Amino acid sequence: MSALDAQGLLEITLRTLGVCLSALVISLSFGVPIGIWLGRRQFPGRRVLLGLVNSGMGAPPIVVGLVVAQLFFRSGPLGQLELWYSVEAMITAQVLIALPLVVALVVAAVAALDLDWELQVKALGIPARWRMWLLLREIRLGLLAAVIAALGGILSEVGAVMQTGGNLEGETRVLTTAILMYTRMGLFESAYALAVVLIGLMLVLAGLLTWVQHGDRT
User: Fold this and answer.
1) pTM attached to this predicted model
2) What CATH number does the domain containing 112 carry?
3) What are the tens digits of pLDDT across the range 181-204?
């Protein structure tokens, strides 16, 4: 294996972005509605569900990767899908890692609203179709925190991705697994080049979050 060239760096970076954004979209699509539902409803077993969500936030990614890998093994329950060592398996693992973060932060944002917020909205005669939009607007900072936390966790993950994707050249190799590989090979220049790109992506995300949070105040 030779040192990383510019084309290889671009390919790995684009694949990383594709995988991470796919996992983020899926996590938000499921996590935001679940978080809003848990935050607005009181029902038997709610605390148990919240406890599971909070436990999921601390779940070791390597264990998540093990579970997903076993699901997609040829002898596993979903082996017929032939998704072991695939981008789809990597996305599945990352969704399971990010989903509890999204749900927990959305629940916290909804819980921070006034207890009579919904009653106030109804009293103002606002149509039901607009209430959800107003709710999302009220918890927008919590949503942004959920986005950055989920994407940060997804971007930095290596163990689960390695187990489910296998770091296959041209197929499943992403920034984190490539950094680990080049480090093991002693090709530190390539490893540092990838590390700079990874850190750069995280800094861009942090900058975007800061701009969205405070841009309208400057």
Assistant:
1) 0.87
2) 1.10.3720.10
3) 999 999 998 899 999 999 998 888
